[in-house]
Amino acid sequence: MLAIQIKSPGNVEVIDLDMPQLRPGEVLIKIDYVGFCGSDLNTFRGKNLMAISPVIPGHEIGGTIEAIGDNVPEGVFTKGMNVTVNPYTACGKCSSCRKSRPNACEHNETLGVQRHGAMREYIAIPWEKVIPAPGISSRDCALIEPMSVGFHAVDRGAVTDIDTVMVIGCGMIGLGAILRAAMRGATVIATDLDDDKLELAKRLGATYTINSAKENIHEKLCDITAGYGPDVVVEAVGSPVTYVTAVEEVAFAGRVVCIGYSKSDVTFQTKLFVQKELDIRGSRNALPADFNAVIRYMQHGNCPVDLLISDIVTPDKAQEALQHWSDNPGKVFRILVKF
Description:
Quinone Oxidoreductase, Chain A, domain 1; Rossmann fold; seven-stranded mixed beta sheet; six-stranded parallel beta sheet; globular; Zinc-binding alcohol dehydrogenase family protein; ADH-like_N; GroES-like_sf
Protein backbone atom coordinates (compact mmCIF):
# COMPACT_ATOMS: atom_id res chain seq x y z
CA MET A 1 0.00 0.00 0.00
CA LEU A 2 1.06 3.60 -0.58
CA ALA A 3 2.31 5.81 2.25
CA ILE A 4 3.85 9.27 2.55
CA GLN A 5 7.13 9.64 4.42
CA ILE A 6 9.00 12.77 5.44
CA LYS A 7 12.44 11.27 4.98
CA SER A 8 14.45 14.33 5.98
CA PRO A 9 13.90 18.11 6.13
CA GLY A 10 12.44 19.24 2.82
CA ASN A 11 12.32 15.70 1.45
CA VAL A 12 8.99 13.84 1.08
CA GLU A 13 8.69 10.45 -0.60
CA VAL A 14 5.87 8.11 -1.53
CA ILE A 15 6.83 4.66 -0.26
CA ASP A 16 5.29 1.18 -0.32
CA LEU A 17 4.30 -0.58 2.91
CA ASP A 18 2.85 -3.98 3.68
CA MET A 19 -0.82 -4.05 4.61
CA PRO A 20 -1.27 -3.86 8.39
CA GLN A 21 -2.16 -7.09 10.20
CA LEU A 22 -5.39 -6.73 12.13
CA ARG A 23 -4.85 -7.86 15.72
CA PRO A 24 -7.42 -8.57 18.42
CA GLY A 25 -8.89 -5.36 19.79
CA GLU A 26 -8.15 -3.37 16.64
CA VAL A 27 -10.17 -1.82 13.82
CA LEU A 28 -8.81 -1.59 10.29
CA ILE A 29 -9.48 1.84 8.78
CA LYS A 30 -9.35 2.65 5.10
CA ILE A 31 -7.81 6.11 5.02
CA ASP A 32 -9.72 8.47 2.75
CA TYR A 33 -8.27 11.84 3.79
CA VAL A 34 -5.51 13.00 6.14
CA GLY A 35 -4.71 16.60 6.98
CA PHE A 36 -1.25 18.12 7.06
CA CYS A 37 -0.99 20.06 10.34
CA GLY A 38 1.46 22.54 11.79
CA SER A 39 3.56 19.81 13.39
CA ASP A 40 3.93 18.12 9.98
CA LEU A 41 5.00 21.45 8.48
CA ASN A 42 7.61 21.87 11.22
CA THR A 43 8.85 18.33 10.61
CA PHE A 44 9.18 19.17 6.92
CA ARG A 45 11.11 22.30 7.87
CA GLY A 46 13.37 20.36 10.26
CA LYS A 47 12.07 22.27 13.29
CA ASN A 48 10.01 19.60 15.05
CA LEU A 49 12.29 18.27 17.75
CA MET A 50 9.65 15.80 18.97
CA ALA A 51 9.30 13.97 15.65
CA ILE A 52 11.10 10.75 14.80
CA SER A 53 12.97 10.72 11.51
CA PRO A 54 12.11 9.50 8.99
CA VAL A 55 8.40 9.62 9.85
CA ILE A 56 5.07 8.82 8.24
CA PRO A 57 3.08 11.93 9.22
CA GLY A 58 -0.63 12.36 9.75
CA HIS A 59 -3.00 12.42 12.70
CA GLU A 60 -5.96 14.39 11.32
CA ILE A 61 -7.88 11.44 9.98
CA GLY A 62 -11.00 10.87 7.93
CA GLY A 63 -11.65 7.27 7.00
CA THR A 64 -14.05 4.38 6.79
CA ILE A 65 -14.03 1.10 8.68
CA GLU A 66 -12.74 -1.75 6.53
CA ALA A 67 -12.66 -4.60 9.05
CA ILE A 68 -13.20 -5.25 12.74
CA GLY A 69 -10.90 -7.48 14.74
CA ASP A 70 -11.68 -9.98 17.47
CA ASN A 71 -12.36 -8.75 21.00
CA VAL A 72 -13.95 -5.50 19.79
CA PRO A 73 -17.28 -4.75 21.52
CA GLU A 74 -20.21 -5.73 19.36
CA GLY A 75 -22.54 -3.09 18.00
CA VAL A 76 -20.10 -0.18 18.30
CA PHE A 77 -18.65 -0.26 14.78
CA THR A 78 -19.89 -1.38 11.38
CA LYS A 79 -18.04 -1.81 8.11
CA GLY A 80 -18.21 1.36 6.00
CA MET A 81 -18.79 3.65 8.99
CA ASN A 82 -17.17 7.09 8.73
CA VAL A 83 -14.74 7.66 11.56
CA THR A 84 -11.93 9.81 12.85
CA VAL A 85 -9.25 8.85 15.37
CA ASN A 86 -7.99 10.07 18.72
CA PRO A 87 -4.29 10.05 17.77
CA TYR A 88 -2.75 10.34 21.24
CA THR A 89 -1.52 7.63 23.60
CA ALA A 90 -1.82 7.60 27.38
CA CYS A 91 0.24 5.52 29.76
CA GLY A 92 -2.44 5.45 32.47
CA LYS A 93 0.17 5.81 35.21
CA CYS A 94 1.69 9.31 35.07
CA SER A 95 0.44 12.30 37.04
CA SER A 96 -1.71 13.62 34.18
CA CYS A 97 -3.34 10.27 33.53
CA ARG A 98 -4.02 9.77 37.24
CA LYS A 99 -5.81 13.14 37.22
CA SER A 100 -8.04 12.10 34.28
CA ARG A 101 -6.16 14.33 31.85
CA PRO A 102 -4.70 11.74 29.45
CA ASN A 103 -4.37 14.37 26.71
CA ALA A 104 -1.37 15.69 28.64
CA CYS A 105 0.17 12.27 29.32
CA GLU A 106 3.86 12.62 30.18
CA HIS A 107 4.65 9.75 27.82
CA ASN A 108 2.22 10.62 25.00
CA GLU A 109 3.11 9.50 21.49
CA THR A 110 1.03 11.25 18.84
CA LEU A 111 0.50 9.60 15.46
CA GLY A 112 2.81 11.16 12.90
CA VAL A 113 5.12 12.70 15.49
CA GLN A 114 6.60 10.31 18.06
CA ARG A 115 5.31 7.28 16.10
CA HIS A 116 4.39 6.69 12.48
CA GLY A 117 1.10 8.24 11.45
CA ALA A 118 -1.85 7.73 9.15
CA MET A 119 -0.69 9.05 5.76
CA ARG A 120 -1.12 5.63 4.24
CA GLU A 121 -3.92 3.72 2.57
CA TYR A 122 -4.84 1.61 5.63
CA ILE A 123 -4.09 1.70 9.33
CA ALA A 124 -5.00 -0.61 12.22
CA ILE A 125 -6.03 1.28 15.38
CA PRO A 126 -7.08 0.09 18.86
CA TRP A 127 -10.86 0.26 18.94
CA GLU A 128 -10.84 2.63 21.93
CA LYS A 129 -9.21 5.30 19.76
CA VAL A 130 -11.68 5.06 16.88
CA ILE A 131 -14.41 7.73 16.97
CA PRO A 132 -17.58 7.25 14.91
CA ALA A 133 -18.78 10.41 13.16
CA PRO A 134 -22.27 9.70 11.82
CA GLY A 135 -23.57 12.21 9.33
CA ILE A 136 -20.11 13.65 8.60
CA SER A 137 -18.27 12.85 5.38
CA SER A 138 -14.91 11.14 5.62
CA ARG A 139 -13.37 14.28 4.10
CA ASP A 140 -14.78 16.49 6.83
CA CYS A 141 -13.80 13.96 9.51
CA ALA A 142 -10.20 15.03 8.86
CA LEU A 143 -11.06 18.47 10.32
CA ILE A 144 -12.35 17.16 13.65
CA GLU A 145 -9.04 16.67 15.46
CA PRO A 146 -7.53 20.14 14.85
CA MET A 147 -10.79 21.85 15.76
CA SER A 148 -10.99 19.79 18.95
CA VAL A 149 -7.62 21.22 20.04
CA GLY A 150 -9.10 24.72 19.86
CA PHE A 151 -12.23 23.55 21.69
CA HIS A 152 -10.06 22.15 24.46
CA ALA A 153 -8.19 25.44 24.88
CA VAL A 154 -11.47 27.26 25.50
CA ASP A 155 -12.37 24.67 28.11
CA ARG A 156 -8.98 25.19 29.77
CA GLY A 157 -9.76 28.91 29.86
CA ALA A 158 -13.08 28.23 31.63
CA VAL A 159 -14.77 30.58 29.16
CA THR A 160 -18.37 31.63 29.89
CA ASP A 161 -20.89 34.04 28.41
CA ILE A 162 -19.68 36.95 30.54
CA ASP A 163 -16.13 36.79 29.17
CA THR A 164 -14.40 38.73 26.45
CA VAL A 165 -11.93 36.40 24.74
CA MET A 166 -9.08 37.33 22.42
CA VAL A 167 -7.70 34.56 20.22
CA ILE A 168 -4.27 35.30 18.76
CA GLY A 169 -3.82 33.37 15.53
CA CYS A 170 -6.58 32.32 13.15
CA GLY A 171 -5.22 29.07 11.82
CA MET A 172 -7.30 25.90 12.16
CA ILE A 173 -6.73 25.56 15.89
CA GLY A 174 -7.31 29.24 16.57
CA LEU A 175 -10.52 29.10 14.54
CA GLY A 176 -11.64 26.17 16.65
CA ALA A 177 -11.09 28.29 19.77
CA ILE A 178 -13.00 31.21 18.24
CA LEU A 179 -15.90 28.96 17.35
CA ARG A 180 -16.08 27.30 20.77
CA ALA A 181 -15.84 30.60 22.67
CA ALA A 182 -18.63 32.07 20.52
CA MET A 183 -20.75 28.96 21.11
CA ARG A 184 -20.38 29.57 24.83
CA GLY A 185 -21.71 33.09 24.44
CA ALA A 186 -18.44 34.96 24.92
CA THR A 187 -17.54 38.15 23.08
CA VAL A 188 -14.68 37.08 20.80
CA ILE A 189 -11.85 39.17 19.40
CA ALA A 190 -9.84 37.54 16.61
CA THR A 191 -6.27 38.71 15.97
CA ASP A 192 -4.15 37.77 12.97
CA LEU A 193 -1.92 39.19 10.24
CA ASP A 194 -4.16 38.13 7.37
CA ASP A 195 -7.46 39.76 6.41
CA ASP A 196 -8.85 36.61 4.77
CA LYS A 197 -8.37 34.63 7.97
CA LEU A 198 -9.97 37.40 9.99
CA GLU A 199 -12.96 37.41 7.67
CA LEU A 200 -13.40 33.69 8.22
CA ALA A 201 -13.07 34.26 11.97
CA LYS A 202 -16.11 36.54 11.72
CA ARG A 203 -18.02 33.77 9.95
CA LEU A 204 -17.27 31.49 12.89
CA GLY A 205 -18.42 33.91 15.57
CA ALA A 206 -15.81 36.61 16.19
CA THR A 207 -17.45 39.93 17.05
CA TYR A 208 -14.31 41.98 16.51
CA THR A 209 -11.14 41.50 14.47
CA ILE A 210 -7.70 43.08 14.72
CA ASN A 211 -5.11 42.91 11.96
CA SER A 212 -1.95 43.23 14.03
CA ALA A 213 0.11 44.05 10.93
CA LYS A 214 -1.95 47.20 10.34
CA GLU A 215 -3.54 48.11 13.67
CA ASN A 216 -2.32 48.82 17.19
CA ILE A 217 -3.53 45.89 19.28
CA HIS A 218 -3.41 47.75 22.59
CA GLU A 219 -5.38 50.72 21.31
CA LYS A 220 -7.99 48.53 19.65
CA LEU A 221 -8.41 46.43 22.79
CA CYS A 222 -8.83 49.54 24.92
CA ASP A 223 -11.62 50.69 22.61
CA ILE A 224 -13.34 47.30 22.57
CA THR A 225 -13.05 46.52 26.29
CA ALA A 226 -13.35 50.05 27.76
CA GLY A 227 -9.73 49.84 28.83
CA TYR A 228 -10.03 46.63 30.85
CA GLY A 229 -8.49 44.20 28.40
CA PRO A 230 -9.86 40.76 27.49
CA ASP A 231 -10.74 38.37 30.31
CA VAL A 232 -9.15 35.46 28.46
CA VAL A 233 -6.40 35.40 25.85
CA VAL A 234 -5.79 32.24 23.83
CA GLU A 235 -2.31 32.14 22.28
CA ALA A 236 -2.50 29.96 19.15
CA VAL A 237 0.62 31.05 17.27
CA GLY A 238 3.66 30.07 19.27
CA SER A 239 5.98 33.06 18.85
CA PRO A 240 7.74 35.17 21.49
CA VAL A 241 5.88 38.29 20.31
CA THR A 242 2.43 36.75 20.69
CA TYR A 243 3.24 35.20 24.06
CA VAL A 244 4.32 38.58 25.40
CA THR A 245 1.27 40.25 23.86
CA ALA A 246 -1.01 37.78 25.61
CA VAL A 247 0.44 38.55 29.04
CA GLU A 248 0.57 42.31 28.47
CA GLU A 249 -2.95 42.67 27.08
CA VAL A 250 -4.99 40.28 29.23
CA ALA A 251 -7.10 41.94 31.92
CA PHE A 252 -6.15 42.02 35.56
CA ALA A 253 -7.20 38.71 37.16
CA GLY A 254 -7.45 37.27 33.64
CA ARG A 255 -6.55 33.91 32.13
CA VAL A 256 -3.94 33.21 29.47
CA VAL A 257 -4.20 29.89 27.63
CA CYS A 258 -1.13 28.77 25.72
CA ILE A 259 -1.45 26.36 22.79
CA GLY A 260 1.43 27.32 20.52
CA TYR A 261 4.98 26.02 20.95
CA SER A 262 7.52 28.81 20.63
CA LYS A 263 10.66 27.73 18.77
CA SER A 264 12.81 30.15 20.77
CA ASP A 265 12.99 31.48 24.30
CA VAL A 266 10.36 33.96 25.47
CA THR A 267 11.28 36.84 27.81
CA PHE A 268 8.53 38.17 30.09
CA GLN A 269 8.19 41.00 32.56
CA THR A 270 7.12 38.57 35.25
CA LYS A 271 5.83 41.35 37.48
CA LEU A 272 2.66 41.24 35.38
CA PHE A 273 2.09 37.65 36.49
CA VAL A 274 1.90 38.85 40.08
CA GLN A 275 0.40 42.31 39.64
CA LYS A 276 -2.44 40.98 37.52
CA GLU A 277 -2.70 37.73 39.51
CA LEU A 278 -2.90 35.87 36.23
CA ASP A 279 -3.88 32.29 35.61
CA ILE A 280 -1.49 31.05 32.92
CA ARG A 281 -2.55 27.67 31.60
CA GLY A 282 -1.14 25.31 29.04
CA SER A 283 -3.46 23.49 26.65
CA ARG A 284 -2.35 20.30 24.98
CA ASN A 285 -4.16 18.09 22.49
CA ALA A 286 -7.82 17.32 23.31
CA LEU A 287 -10.05 15.09 25.40
CA PRO A 288 -12.78 12.76 24.09
CA ALA A 289 -15.38 15.31 25.20
CA ASP A 290 -13.77 17.89 22.89
CA PHE A 291 -13.94 15.49 19.93
CA ASN A 292 -17.60 14.83 20.70
CA ALA A 293 -18.37 18.55 20.92
CA VAL A 294 -16.83 19.16 17.48
CA ILE A 295 -18.75 16.24 16.00
CA ARG A 296 -22.04 17.57 17.38
CA TYR A 297 -21.28 20.99 15.92
CA MET A 298 -20.40 19.60 12.49
CA GLN A 299 -23.50 17.39 12.45
CA HIS A 300 -25.62 20.54 12.46
CA GLY A 301 -24.19 21.45 9.05
CA ASN A 302 -23.21 25.01 9.94
CA CYS A 303 -19.45 24.61 9.58
CA PRO A 304 -18.05 26.35 6.45
CA VAL A 305 -15.85 23.33 5.70
CA ASP A 306 -15.12 24.34 2.11
CA LEU A 307 -13.47 27.53 3.37
CA LEU A 308 -11.32 25.62 5.86
CA ILE A 309 -9.82 23.31 3.24
CA SER A 310 -7.17 25.16 1.26
CA ASP A 311 -6.31 22.27 -1.04
CA ILE A 312 -6.79 18.55 -1.58
CA VAL A 313 -3.83 16.72 -3.12
CA THR A 314 -2.88 13.18 -4.06
CA PRO A 315 0.11 11.49 -2.38
CA ASP A 316 2.43 12.26 -5.29
CA LYS A 317 1.82 15.98 -4.72
CA ALA A 318 2.61 15.93 -0.98
CA GLN A 319 6.10 17.39 -1.38
CA GLU A 320 4.80 20.23 -3.54
CA ALA A 321 1.95 20.92 -1.09
CA LEU A 322 4.20 21.14 1.96
CA GLN A 323 6.66 23.35 0.11
CA HIS A 324 3.82 25.67 -0.90
CA TRP A 325 2.64 25.87 2.71
CA SER A 326 6.17 26.50 3.93
CA ASP A 327 6.54 29.34 1.42
CA ASN A 328 3.07 30.81 2.18
CA PRO A 329 2.35 30.02 5.85
CA GLY A 330 -0.21 32.78 6.29
CA LYS A 331 -2.44 31.67 3.42
CA VAL A 332 -3.13 28.02 4.29
CA PHE A 333 -5.77 26.59 6.63
CA ARG A 334 -5.67 22.88 5.90
CA ILE A 335 -4.19 20.77 3.12
CA LEU A 336 -5.78 17.33 2.86
CA VAL A 337 -4.16 14.33 1.22
CA LYS A 338 -6.67 12.09 -0.53
CA PHE A 339 -5.95 8.37 -0.77
